[in-house]
Design brief:
Elements lengths: L1 H13 L2 H7 L2 H10 L6 E2 L4 H10 L16 H17 L1 H11 L2 E2 L3
Antiparallel strand pairs: 1-2
């Protein structure tokens, strides 16, 4: 049972917006959002996980998907917004420093 809980936590963190923008490289986060065809041009590092999730919500639907019935995985993204918000708050000192040193994560170039 413990192993299953740890595996579930690992899978959830892998999709977490904070994990995608803070732990992974800028290029990987930008590539992920480009593949989802989001309309976001950049993601600021401060509260980047929450911004990443909102960019996912504001992406175009894939081919063959009825845009009026498409929800971008909304329930899961909204749960992740809450988790990312908590993690982003804990990481504020680091992300404020990174924002000052490196600027935002640029998606469109």
């Amino acid at each position: 049972m413990k192993t299953q809980a740890m595996l579930l936590a690992a899978v959830m963190l892998a999709g977490c917006g904070t994990f995608q923008t803070v732990v992974r490289s800028d290029e990987a986060a930008a590539k992920s959002l480009k593949e989802q065809k989001t309309y976001c041009g950049a993601v600021p590092r401060i509260y980047s996980g929450v911004t990443y999730d909102f960019c996912r919500l504001h992406a175009t639907p894939g081919p063959g998907i009825d845009e009026y019935k498409y929800d971008n995985g909304t329930p899961f993204v909204l749960i992740d917004v809450v988790i990312s918000g908590a993690l982003d708050t804990m990481l504020l000192p680091y992300t404020i420093y990174r924002q000052q040193a490196d600027g935002s994560i640029v998606i469109t170039e």
